[in-house]
Structure formats: C-alpha cells, structure tokens
Design goal:
The complex is a heterotrimer. Chain A is built from 16 helices and 18 strands. Chain A has helices at 43-51, 73-77, 91-94, 101-111, 117-130, 146-158, 176-189, 202-208, 226-231, 236-243, 303-310, 350-361, 368-374, 391-404, 421-437, 449-455; strands spanning 3-14, 17-28, 33-36, 58-66, 69-70, 84-87, 164-168, 194-199, 211-216, 219-225, 263-274, 277-288, 292-296, 318-323, 333-336, 409-413, 441-446, 458-461. The longest helix of chain A has 17 residues, at 421-437. Chain A is globular. In chain A, 44% of the residues are buried. By secondary structure, chain B is an all-alpha fold. Chain B has helices at 2-28, 34-43, 50-60, 66-78, 92-128, 132-145, 148-162, 174-205, 207-214, 219-257, 262-272, 275-303. The longest helix of chain B is centred in the last third of the chain and has 39 residues, at 219-257. In chain C, α1 crosses α2 (59-94), α7 (172-208) packs parallel to α8 and α8 runs antiparallel to α9 (235-256). The model of chain C has no long low-confidence stretch (mean pLDDT 84). Classes of the chains: A alpha/beta, B mainly alpha, C mainly alpha. At the B-C interface, α1, α6, α7, α10 and α11 of B face α3, α4, α7 and α9 of C.
Chain lengths: 462, 311, 260
C-alpha cells in the first residue's frame, strides 16, 4: 500500500489562537480515511490546509507530504485536478451558475487533459451518463436538485484524472436516499487512488469504512478502523456522537397517549398544490389530543406544505380539514420553525419578546422559571437577542414560548435539522415529552425516517 | 423575452402620455393671454398684434375646451406631429432629430470611455486589494460627490482655459467632443468602477471560482470561463440603473458645453418657454431612455439566459 | 443605531454648514441683494469675509442664504419622500394584491422618465418656484423608498419570525414595530441621506441651466453660472459654490455610511 498523502503535525492558527491542534495522518492507496466530527470541530480547515486553500488570515504549520515528497502550497496547487482534488461542500455554490452542466465537465477535459473540443464533449457526456445525469447536461446548476448538483460536481472534479479525492461534507443537506448514492459514487471514483472524507454523519462514516478519525473542537479524540471505532467507541465523545444518531435512539415516544383520546383534527382526502404542481393527493388521517404524528419523505414532497395547510397558511386543493377542538383559540395552533434564528426578531432581547407575549395574553409569570428549568435554559439568555444564543437554546426557547400559550396543536417543521446531532436529540426528546404532558398534539416533520420512527405514535409517509 | 419587450412597450406609451400631459398642463398654465405671450416670444415684444396672437391661437388650438384640446394634443402626439418651434418656426421633428444624433454621439462616446476607465480599474481594485483598492475607492468617492457640472467646469478651467488643449464649448471638430465625453465618462465611471470591483471581488471569492481552479484550470482559464460572464452580469444590470444618471448627466453636460443635443435643447426650450420643442425634446429623451433600457435588458438576457433578474 | 466615525464626520460637516448658514443669515450686516458697485469682486477681507460678487454683493450673505435654501429643500424633500415612500411601500406589501398593483402602476409611470427630466418639466410649469421644485423632487424621490421598503417588507412578511408573531396573536402594529421597522429602518436611513444629496444636486443642476430658482435669489447652481465668467479675475468667487456643493454632497454620502 503506497502512501499518497502524509500529514505531520499540521496545525492551523488564526493569529495566536489555535483552531486546529497539531495532527498527523497518513492516507494509503486503496484505504479510505474518514474524519468525523460536529460542525466547528475544525475538520474543514484540515482539508483546506491540505489543498492549500486556507483563507489568507490563517496560518498553517507542519508538513504536508504528497506522493512521498514534502510540498509547498504552490507545488500542491500544481497538482490540482490532475492528481489531487477536493469536492466542494456546497455543490450549488461551487458550480458556475451561468454555465451548462456538461460544459463544466467538458472544460476540464479540454484545458486539463488537453483534448480537442469534440473529444472533450463526448468524454463529458460519457461522464454524465455514469453519474446518471445524461438528460440534465444542458441544465444550469440552479435547475438541478442538491443531489444532482453534487453528482455533477463529482464528475467535474474527477474529470481531470485525480485519484486522491478530498470530500468535505459531500452529503450535507441531502436526503437519506440520495446520500447513499453519493457515497458509493465517491467510492467508485476513488478506486484507483484514495478518498479522504470529512463528515458529521455517522452513517456515512460507517458506509465508507477504512480508517476513522474522530475530532472535537480542533482536537483528535480517537482513531482506528471505522467498524472498530463505531462499534466499540472508547472515547465519551465518540459514544455521544454515535448514540445521537436517530437510528441509535431508544424509543422516546411518550406512552401517555390514550387510544380513547378524542380527535382534535381530521384530514379527509386532502390534496395540496404549490406552484401548479400537485404535492400530494387523497391524504386522510386523524390526529388525537396529545398524539405525536411524524411526517417523512424526501425534500420537495410537500411535508412542510402539509403542516402549513393544517394551520390554514395554505389552501387545500381538494378534500377537507376539520378541527374538533372548538374551545381552542387561534393562537393555540402553533408552529416551530426549521431555522431557529429566522423565527425571532433580532431587534430586541429574548426577554423583551417574552414580556410582549406575557402582556398580550396575561400569562402567569410564575410558570416561566420552572419551564425554563425543564428546558435547561439559563436565565442569561433573556438578556441577549436571538443571534447571541446557540441554535439549540433558541429552539428550546421557541418551545418555551409555544408552551406558555397552552397549545393544542404544534407543527414542528424539521425543528432539529439545523442542529448538530447531540443537540438535536435533546431538543426532540424535550419537545415530545413536554408537549405530551401538556396534552398538545405534535406534527413532527423530518427527512430522517429513523428519527420519526423513534418518536412518533403515528407516521405519515409522503 | 416577450414579457420584457411588452413591459418596455408599456413604458414607451407611458413616456409619450406623461410628456404629452405635462407639456399640455404647461401650456395651459402660462399666465396671461397664452396666445399673446407665445406670439410675443416668437415675434418679439414689439411685433405682437392681435393677428399674430390669433395665428398662434389657431395653431395651438388654444380656443378649444381643455378636454378637446387635450385629446387633440395627445392624438397629434401619437402621430408624432410635434408642430413647429415657437422661437425659430422650424419643424420640431427636424430639430429634435438633429439633436438626437448629437446626444447619441455624446452618450456612446461617454459610455465607451467610462467602460474603458471603470472595468480595468475595478478589476484591478478587486485583484490587487489594498492599498490600491482604498486609493481608487477614495478617489471615486470624491468624484462622486461632485455634480457633473462641477467636473465639467473644472475641466473647462484646466484643459480649455488654462492649458488651451481643447475648445471650451461648441461643436464641429472631434476635439469638441473630448471634454464633454470625458466629463460624462468620469461621472459614470466613478460609480460603476465600484460595481465592477464588488462584482469581481464576489466572483473571485466565490466557491465556483475556487472550484474551477481545484478542477485544474489555470487562473487565466478560470477568469475567461467563469470570471468574465459572472462579473459582467451585475455590471450590465447596474448600467440599467445608471441610465438615469447618464441622461441627467447629458442634460447638464450639453448645457455646459453648448453641445447641440437633446438636453441642451430641452433646457433652452424650457428657458424660452418654447412648448413644442420642450415636448419634442422631452419625448426624444424619454424614447432614448426606453430604447437604452431595452438594450440593457437584451444584453442581460444574453449573458444570463435564466431570465432577467431584478425585474 | 450605531454610527461609524465617517458617518459622524459627515454629520459634523453638515451641522457646520448649517450653523454657517443660520449665523450668516442672522448676523450678516448685508442683505442678500444689497449691491455696492464700488466694491465689486473684492477678495475676502475683514469687511467681506468671503469677498463680494460682480455686483458688489456680500458673498458671505449670499452663500449663507444659498446653503440655507439647499438645506431647506433637501430636508423637506427627505422628510416628505421618506414618509410617503415608506408608508406606501409597507402598504403595497401588506395591503393585498389590489393595492400593490395600483401602486405598481403609479410607480412605473414615474419611473418611465429619468427623474431630472420630470423635475425639469415640472419646473417649467411654474418657473423659479421653490414649492414646485420641492413637489417635483419629492415626487421623484419617494419612488426609491417605495421600491426598497416594499421589497424588504415582502420578505419580512414571509419570514417565519413575522408569521410566528401573527400566529401567537400579535396585532399589526406590533408586527410592524418588531419586525418590519427594524428591517427597513437602516435602508430608509441610507436612502434618506442619499436623497438629501440628490435633492441638493437637482436644485443646483436646475439653477445651473437657468430653470430653477431665479435671480436675484442666491442658489448654489445659479451662482456657479453667474460667477463663471469671472473665473480668471476672481477665482475665489467661483470656487465657493463649487466647493460647498461638493462638500454638502460628500457629507451626505459619508452620513449614508454604505452605498445605495
């Protein structure tokens, strides 16, 4: 097994602050290497340091050896495309928005491999066929889905002939079903060389196999064979990461729901259209008081639209939605948003927002402290605005605000998809637990079937 | 494409109606006996008699009720019957056509020079960064604070009166074009160089620009394939916005340099209260505005076939 | 709102000019149109701090009046157009499709012609009228506020934050106060500063082509043309209106902070 890439004590600094602690690793031919860690753990910096793509204000120390030779940044840059390539994190932003997909692959053959125009075009078309984009070559990136854009990016990145592939969060934002396809495509493409992947997704790490490095806050906490590390983690942090995966959750669906509970909402043969397209059709279900109902499906299938329709934000194209609880006020049908900061006004402190709500509805202030304790929200967050607290805290604050209104129905639209897995697990558990105690029904939308499976009484698949 | 052209057509109609209505109000609001006033301005204060006034009254249909007169006014306008100048007696359409040619010459000369200044400087700002960037941006701030006529006056003082390099004002030789065109170009470039710079900076820092190099393309190949178009798009779109200042600049520059274009004609006609010429020149200016807007739209559509943004 | 040091500088320049104008108008012993043909085109001296013009009028008095006039116009236009534009902008975004399309038509009519041409035509109706200038410039300027405010407000209305407040039972005034105003106020402020500059420019431009404020009133653009013939005999005279116009515009641009 020849050594393709070897790092010796590579560290990244911003001025004097160390963002990535000294780290050594070796990438061998035919043995993929995966770096696992949450966002902010410095793993993207590592890939950028290898490529020589760090922003100017960051400095790097240590040696990077490629193909057995220590190389300067400029020497490494000369390898781009031909020998060494990095897959972008956000394929949509990494493809030229004005250029047809096929041209973005073709130009690599033309300029890097120095083929003629016709040769490059046929090679590019061949590549697109391999990644299943043969009918989409004439489209521009804006017209492609996230998965398609990522496949196009992979085709474009590897057209230059590089076999050492660095992939920075290649599955970010993709549905589970798309994720597996991208991972196996990466495996094929790197068959002649090797693959260094950076991910926060335990499932991706498991699928890739090979060597696994777990990172936390710029520090290496554990490394070893992927299956070994994932099945028998030694470090607490690794263990936490693994158990935070929804598929590893214990069943947290609350048991308090009684089958005899009354219906609060019945949907009968509902169909919803958006932009002239029918999202779903002929959908019937009922939601009982205090029940947790999960909605799953790939992105774009209308999960969020269903929730919005139940809250009367969207008209239904046909069918009917009946609310049974006649005593509930309109403000007791509420929604939790996907992106917590966007759901709050940043112009005043969270405390002020809470006061506004208390004054409007005459809520008993005594309820706040115990509820904040339950949600483990520190008092100080009330003095900050929504941009000054973490996403997890903010989502818990949103739950607090909703619960103060004694809701009967709460539509949670992917409430944890922007949170890291460990926080996501905590928030989901709290939401389900507290809502059930309050007798509030929850419609939980998620792109992760495992999450819904573990938390809900009833699952609607779109 | 069709939607865009339809919108521009609508704008054209609005321009004709707006100019017609405003000049109609203008005519009706002249104080005193309109016919006498207009006749006086045409034939001189001493030569006005009731016969001359009657002629004018007849010509401008001043004896009709406001509504009928308005209707006539608009229908004449729709057929581009612009009448004769009250001052020179020449047909307005000829005068205006003549002026339009001069204005177009100035506009395109100014535009080309401004592109020649703004694009290289903007790219250089984005490429080299500080300190060059700060110097160029500071310079453009200073020029931007000066009204176009102040720039023009300074140029006249320096290049025409102090160093005698170019004629002060007038028209006839290519040398006459130099100062007005540069004045216009500088005032446009002081704004557009920032747009070029911002757009270039954004493109240079974009993920797709980096990815193109990671794919193995050289810097120059990346610039040609992915830089130029992406930088040009906001710049051209911005030019649509800058058209307004360009037309306004033309009015001022033509007046300052006595350049016989539409802007000069309009200012003069307003000063002389020569209503048919006011109408004719305002109309031409409006049409010029619409045509250039349409041109910008078409170019944007050509660069970015995904559809014109910001519309 | 926190201001950067360059914004403070802009504000400082504007306030100094305003003070100059107020003090000059109130305490100058000369009136704006008082001629003294024995003392024409004098250089600045203890008697005439800024010299005298071609009719022997005190330049200090005239500049003070001209600056005051520019300020008065720009502040009036700024207030009128920002209030009208913001109100209509929010209304168009929030008042339903009908309101939006009606206002859209009005705005498209105003945008069909370049602003200066509209102002010129209005100015032609009542020559030399300050009121007409004010109306015409405000009419042209509110559109800019309208477009920006409408676009931002539309975004805010779609935002989860606003939607969530509405869902929790908060009324429209609350939603405006907490969500819309904080989103639009920085842009309104920036536009107002640019609008102030452009009102001054427009008035000077009209004066410069002789269709704005009429003599013997003092107006910066008008003074530029009047003094232009004497550039070689008395360059300090021509310099005054030119420098002051540029300074006022520059100060407003600094105050705006960011670019439009």
């Amino acid at each position: 097994m020849s050594v393709l890439l070897k790092l010796t004590n590579v560290a990244v600094y911003a001025d004097k602050t160390c963002l990535l602690e000294p780290m050594s690793l070796t990438l061998h031919q035919g043995e993929p290497l995966t770096i696992l860690g949450q966002t902010g753990s410095g793993k993207s910096l590592l890939a950028q340091a290898i490529m020589g793509l760090l922003p100017e204000n960051l400095t790097v120390s240590g040696d990077v050896e490629v193909f057995g030779r220590t190389m300067t940044i400029d020497e490494r840059k000369a390898l781009w495309g031909r020998d060494l390539v990095m897959l972008p994190q956000e394929p949509w932003n990494s493809l030229d928005p004005l250029m047809k997909g096929v041209d973005q692959v073709q130009e690599v053959y033309k300029f890097v491999r120095e083929k003629t125009d016709e040769e490059s075009l046929s090679l590019a078309e061949n590549d697109l066929q391999h990644v299943g984009l043969e009918d989409n070559g004439h489209k521009r990136p804006g017209e492609l889905s996230g998965g398609m854009a990522q496949r196009l990016a992979i085709a474009a990145a590897t057209a230059g002939g590089a076999h050492v592939i660095l992939a920075d969060e290649p599955t970010k934002g993709l549905d589970v079903s798309r994720r597996d396809g991208i991972v196996s495509l990466l495996q094929t493409r790197s068959a002649l060389g090797s693959l260094l992947t950076i991910t926060h997704d335990v499932a991706v790490a498991r699928q890739l196999g090979g060597l696994l490095l777990v990172m936390k806050e710029g520090r290496l906490v554990e490394q070893g064979e992927a299956s070994q590390v994932l099945d028998y983690p030694k470090d607490d942090y690794t263990r936490e990461l693994i158990t935070a995966e929804p598929s590893a959750w214990t069943d947290i669906a609350p048991s308090v729901r009684k089958d005899s509970a009354e219906n609060i909402l019945v949907a009968d043969k509902v169909s919803v259209k958006r932009g002239g397209r029918t999202l779903f059709d002929d959908l019937s279900f009922s939601i009982k008081k205090g029940e947790v109902v999960g909605v799953v499906g790939d992105s774009g299938c209308g999960k969020s639209s269903l929730g919005d329709a139940l809250l009367n934000f969207l008209p239904v194209a046909s069918g009917s939605i009946t609310r049974f609880d006649k005593t509930a006020k309109p403000y007791q049908w509420l929604k939790l948003y996907q992106d917590p900061p966007s759901a709050f006004s940043a112009s005043v402190t969270l405390g002020k927002l809470l006061d506004d709500l208390i004054n409007l509805h005459g809520i008993d202030r005594a309820r706040i402290a115990p509820l904040m304790d339950r949600l483990s929200l520190p008092k100080v967050i009330l003095e900050r605005n929504c941009l000054g607290v973490s996403g997890g805290e903010l989502q818990r604050f949103a739950i607090l605000r909703a619960l103060l209104l004694d809701p009967v129905f709460l539509f949670a639209d992917e409430p944890t998809s922007r949170l890291d897995p460990i926080t996501a697990k905590e928030v989901t558990a709290l939401l389900v637990e507290l809502a059930s105690e309050a007798g509030c029904a929850v419609l939980l939308v998620s792109h992760d079937p495992a999450l819904v499976q573990k938390t809900c009484h009833q699952v609607i698949t779109l | 494409m069709k939607v865009m052209l339809f919108k521009r057509l609508l704008q054209l109609i609005t321009v004709i109606w707006g100019v017609g209505t405003l000049t109609f109000i203008l005519m009706r609001s002249l104080p005193g006996d309109m016919a006498y006033r207009i006749a006086a301005s045409r034939y001189g204060q001493d030569n006005v008699d009731s016969q001359a006034a009657a002629l004018v009254r007849e010509e401008l249909k001043l004896d009709q009720s406001a509504l009928t007169a308005y209707w006539h006014w608009l229908t004449d306008l729709m057929q581009l019957k612009l009448g004769d100048s009250l001052v020179s007696g020449l047909p307005v359409i000829d005068t205006v056509q003549h002026m339009l040619g001069h204005s177009l010459l100035l506009a395109f000369a100014g535009l080309i020079v401004s592109v020649l200044i703004a694009v290289p400087l903007g790219l250089l700002s984005a490429w080299r960064g500080n300190p060059l960037d700060s110097i160029l941006m500071g310079l453009s701030s200073v020029i931007r604070s000066m009204p176009v006529f102040v720039i023009g006056v300074l140029f006249i003082l320096l290049f025409a009166l102090n160093w005698n390099l170019f004629p002060v004002a007038g028209f006839g030789s290519p040398a006459h074009l130099v100062l007005p065109a540069i004045t216009l170009a500088l005032s446009l470039a002081a704004v557009s160089n920032r747009v070029v710079r911002d757009s270039a900076k954004k493109t240079f820092q974009s993920a797709f620009y980096q990815f193109s190099q990671v794919k193995g393309l050289s810097l120059w190949q990346t610039f040609r394939r992915h830089g130029a178009r992406n930088i040009a798009l906001p710049v051209v779109a911005f030019f649509g916005i800058q058209l307004v200042s360009m037309i306004e600049g033309i009015v001022m520059i033509e007046s300052l340099f006595s350049w016989p274009g539409i802007g000069h004609g309009l200012a003069h006609a307003i000063f002389a209260r020569d209503i048919p010429v006011i109408q004719g020149s305002a109309l031409m200016m409006g049409i010029l505005f619409v045509l250039l807007n349409t041109l910008v739209d078409i170019i944007c559509l050509w660069i970015d076939p995904r559809g014109v943004k910001n519309q | 709102m926190k201001m950067r040091s360059s914004q403070w500088l802009g504000l400082g320049i504007l306030l100094s000019l305003l003070a100059f104008s107020v003090l000059g108008v109130s305490f100058s012993p000369y009136s704006m149109s008082e001629q003294n043909l024995n003392a024409i085109m004098e250089a600045p001296s203890a008697v005439h701090w800024l010299g005298t013009d071609q009719y022997g009028r005190s330049m200090l008095t005239r500049m003070a009046h001209a600056v005051g006039l520019s300020f008065a116009l720009s502040l009036m236009c700024m207030l009128t157009s920002s209030i009208v534009g913001t109100a209509f902008g929010v209304w168009a975004a929030w008042g339903g499709k009908k309101v939006d399309s009606v206002l859209g038509v009005v705005v498209n009519i105003l945008l069909a012609l370049p602003g200066l041409v509209v102002v010129l035509l209005f100015a032609a109706i009542v020559p030399g009228s300050f009121l007409m200038l004010y109306l015409a410039i405000s009419l042209v300027q509110w559109v800019e506020y309208f477009r920006v405010v409408r676009a931002i407000t539309q975004g805010v209305i779609q935002s989860p934050a606003r939607q969530s407040s509405a869902m929790m039972g908060f009324g429209r005034w609350y939603q405006f106060k907490r969500h819309i105003w904080p989103a639009i106020s920085p842009s309104v402020f920036t536009l107002a500063a640019f609008g102030g500059a452009s009102a001054i420019l427009t008035m000077a431009s009209l004066g410069f082509v002789y269709v704005g404020i009429q003599p013997p009133l003092a107006e910066l653009g008008l003074m530029t043309v009047e003094l232009f013939p004497y550039y070689s005999d008395a360059p300090w005279l021509l310099a005054q209106p030119l420098v002051v116009i540029a300074l006022m515009v520059f100060a407003f641009h600094l105050l705006a902070g960011k670019r439009a």
